[in-house]
Specification:
6 strands, alpha+beta, single chain, 36% helix, six-stranded mixed sheet
Length: 241
């Protein structure tokens, strides 16, 4: 196991789960059901489904006698809560700990989501950012190897045009996405992940918290009108000196 394989499997899992997952999801506030697909799948549902798919599809990735599990508890000395994914040995000791973070530029309705930056760079515990996950993994010494992985979709006027071709009955959602894109770049509508990921990488590597970014693109994840193309990025956490 290494970080390159982890990032690759997450990208492959996104493509598979977008097509095959049929679990219903609804708004806690209104009760209205979300459209199926990765864009409407919460982090917890995604990681649970990812683990099940991973073990079934690539069992040889997991060393003999080890298990890939979800919600592995942190030591009590580091507060309540669990790590998203862990590979544990027969004695339940974590060999790899993996925190997964979704970066979401727009919601299920295609409207602007203002929490993306906070989910990546916020220094505050309440935001549960990538930075927070890195520090918690490092300081808790939860596993011999620790990784944080982020994934998200990118948009542009071109992707909105393709979305409308694939989802001709979703004009309102796609129009909402187009409005968000226009605010970011009125000429092309380009709304990329790399500026945020590069900023995060500069901080994590500059502070010697992690090794450098490993990233991979995924494409044609179109079950949801707010889907399309995106990126998975991962960082291996440096051990605490």
């Amino acid at each position: 196991m290494d970080i390159n394989l982890i990032v690759k499997r997450v990208a492959e899992g996104i493509a598979y789960l977008d097509t095959h997952d049929n679990s219903p999801r609804a708004s806690q506030r209104t009760g209205a059901f979300y459209n199926p697909g990765i864009p409407s799948m919460t982090e917890s549902v995604f990681t649970k489904n990812l683990a099940a798919w991973w073990v079934k599809t690539f069992p040889k990735d997991i060393d003999l006698g080890c298990s890939l599990i979800t919600e592995h508890p942190y030591p009590k000395s580091h507060g309540r809560g669990n790590c998203d994914l862990a590979i544990i040995d027969k004695d339940s000791q974590a060999l790899w700990a993996i925190e997964v973070k979704r970066i979401q530029f727009v919601g299920d309705n295609g409207k602007n989501n203002d929490f993306g930056l906070a989910k990546v760079l916020s220094p505050y515990n309440k935001d549960r950012s990538v930075v927070h996950d890195v520090l918690r993994l490092r300081d808790s010494k939860l596993a011999a190897n620790s990784v944080v992985v982020s994934y998200g979709f990118e948009y542009s006027f071109k992707s909105c045009d393709e979305a409308l071709l694939r989802h001709p009955n979703e004009h309102e959602r796609i129009s909402n996405v187009r409005d968000v894109c226009k605010k970011e770049n009125s000429t092309t509508g380009t709304y990329p992940l790399n500026p945020m990921l590069d900023m995060l990488n500069d901080y994590l590597v500059g502070k010697k918290l992690t090794q450098g970014k490993v990233s991979i693109d995924f494409e044609n994840v179109w079950r949801h009108p707010c889907g399309g193309n995106g990126k998975v990025a991962g960082w291996k956490v440096n051990p605490l000196n």
